[in-house]
Amino acid sequence: MCGIIGFTGLKQAAPILLEGLSRMEYRGYDSAGMAVTSPEGLLQLARVSGKVAGLYDRTENGAAFPGACGIAHTRWATHGAPTEANAHPQVSMHGRFAVAHNGIIENFAALKKELIEKGYAFTSQTDTEIVANLLEDSYRGDFQEAVEKMLARIEGSYAFAILCADHPGELFAVRMNSPLILGLGEGFNLFASDVTALVSHTRRVVYMDDGDYARVTPDEVALFAKDGSPKALRETRVNISLAEAEKGGFEHFMMKEIFEQPEALEKTIASRIRGGEIVLDDFRLESESLKNIQKIVITACGSAYYAGLAGRYAIEKLCRIPVDVKLASELRYEDPLIDGRTMLIVLSQSGETLDTIAAMKECKARGAKVLAIVNVAASTIARLADHVLYTWAGPEIAVATTKGYTTQLAVLDLFAVYAARQLGRLDEEEYAAWMQKIRELPGLVRKALALEPAMADLAVLLKDAEHVFFLGRNTDSALAMEGALKLKEISYIHAEAYAAGELKHGTIALLEEGTPVIALCCNQALLEKTASNIIEVKARGAKTIAVAPEGAAQEVLASCADRCVFVPAADDIFSAMIAVVPLQLLAYHTAKLRGCSIDKPKNLAKSVTVE
Ligand code: F6R
User: Fold this and answer.
1) pTM for this structure?
2) Which among 254, 347, 349 is the best mutation to test ligand 1's pocket, defined by most ligand atoms within 8 Å of the CB?
3) I need a labelling partner for 100 at 20 to 30 A (CA). Which of 351, 479, 508, 596 fits?
4) Ligand 1 center to 474 CA (angstroms)
5) Helix (H, G, I), strand (E, B) or coil at 223
6) Which runs of consecutive H residues, i.e. helices, occur in 221-342?
């Protein structure tokens, strides 16, 4: 995820900015940059594609950039490839303003058109350059007025660090749905998107609220609310260590990433529902070409494959196009029935999974049009695909995927509703209703996180188990697979997932007194059926845990399962995204009780680039 830092004081800014960027490196990024105002009031700019080390080299460890006020950035590419030209800070056409930005400007296309008509030229593919030029366009000598005018024009989520060469020593920090924290010092002030970049300079911080902006000089921080009214600084002290700060105060990256899911989903979804439409910027298949598609094949590995299994239900239900979900490691060696009328959807967090790349190449060679749903910008899969939809989950560091999986589901859901509308299968009212259901998902995931203490409690029941079974029907059977994988990969407990109706065809023989069975009952139409499977396994000694939506299921399950976990209710086809949260938390707490290496489980790698 991108990182921002701004510093203004009496000391040289560049070494402090570089150190701040190094502290934020753990978040992952693919390019970096820094802008510092020289004592003569000139804007000095350095940007590199690649690591912060390149920025140290380019600026002679900062020594080549004199001046005590500057901003810097590490970029995780979204709009535009991770090149030097697209790195931040982005500078306005006349070189007066420099802007570092986290987030997305949703109305960038309209603003860019307007600025081009006014004669502005652009040198990058970023939405950030538009912000720099909007500032230039609004500027009449008053820095703050230009910032306020620019803010009135933009829509989206953002955190900005803004520097104006005409106003040495003065910076603006802006926050809207993207974190930014002010750090207060003696003879200097700074701000950053990540507390890790602040704590070696000061422990006195002010957390900005959404919509806030601040004018920062060496001896003053003036904070304003969105409507321009001044706000008092509510100062707090950070007492966490640097190592803790990197994990956002969580003990493990996995837990941090589980808790980042509402934000990651918001980013993935919100910018794609605009003006009452789903806008899939990088997917340009018109309705005519979509109508020619005879089937969709989804391919991926591991959790991404399970996301495909769950997403299949949404696509088939809404689009009425047959969907096959195939393991990439198998598909690559089949003689697949794929041609120009097949659409291949490739799911991959890393974008580098070797089997997925090979399956994709095989299908592409047979004429399939490829849509990749990927988290890492400019990764191999993103580059090879015909169309790419990014998941915008930010870097995932824990080996076991969490936010990678849920954001893949979000993009599949958006795609299903979008394609159904293009195919004429949803009228206006239905289309609006489905969009609304998708929009609500991040909030429902946020509510599901409140189950954390309950799942820590339930983990005690699982920690000594030798085998755990996960059951479910329909969308719940896909979810069962992800639940079982999460548990086995981090707790090393043997876990298996079964379609609940399959049990009596063999698996039921494995049940013993006390074997934990987790029954997923989110599919409301099949609730009674799964409930009878719970009774079936309970009669054979299993300890049963039901996971179901709040509402009607509560009464049915309370009388048959030993323990129940109720999650916020969502439509059946979207339920995996909500109900996976307690399963992630359960796996985490079970692994923790067993003393396992949660972020780096044995024998596993984050990106599987071998066969
Ligand atoms: C499980 C997990 C793996 C990945 C799989 C695919 O928690 O992370 O199963 O889902 O290796 O990786 P990507 O999505 O990078 O292609």
Assistant:
1) 0.76
2) 349
3) 351
4) 22
5) strand
6) 242-246, 253-259, 261-270, 287-291, 302-319, 328-331
Cβ atoms within 10 Å, residue 274:
14
Task: Reply yes or no on whether 564 is catalytic.
Answer: no
Q: What is the residue extent of each domain of the chain?
A: 3-244, 246-439, 450-593
Q: 450-593: which CATH topology?
A: Rossmann fold (3.40.50)
C-alpha dist (Å) from residue 340 to 364, 366, 370, 385: 9, 7, 10, 15
- The CATH class, in words, for 3-244 is alpha beta
**What CA–CA distance (Å, rounded) separates 35 from 99?**
9
Distances (CA, A) of 486 to 327, 400, 530: 18, 7, 22
Ligand 1 centre to CA of 376 (Å) is 13
Average pLDDT, the chain: 92
Residue 502: HSE in the Cβ half-sphere, 13 Å Cα cutoff: 12
Instruction: Give the residue, by CA position, lying nearest to ligand 1 atom 5.
Output: 302
**Bridge partners, residue 217, by sequence:** 220
Beta-sheet strand order (sheet of 90-91):
90-91, 97-105, 156-164, 171-176, 213-217, 220-224, 230-231
521 is catalytic: no
Q: What is the CATH number of domain 246-439?
A: 3.40.50.10490
In terms of DSSP bridges, do strands 90-91 and 97-105 run parallel, antiparallel, or are they unpaired? antiparallel
Each residue's pLDDT tens digit, 345-379:
999 998 989 899 999 999 999 999 999 999 987 78
Give which of 414, 398, 412 is closest to 588, Cα–Cα: 398
pLDDT tens digits, one per residue of 254-271: 999 999 999 999 989 988
Atom number in ligand 1 closest to CA 402: 7
Instruction: Look up residue 7 and give its amino acid.
Output: F
Distance 261 CA to ligand 1 centre (A): 17
Q: Is the dihedral of CA 558, 562, 568, 570 positive or negative?
A: negative
Q: How far apart are CA 537 and CA 545, in angstroms?
A: 11
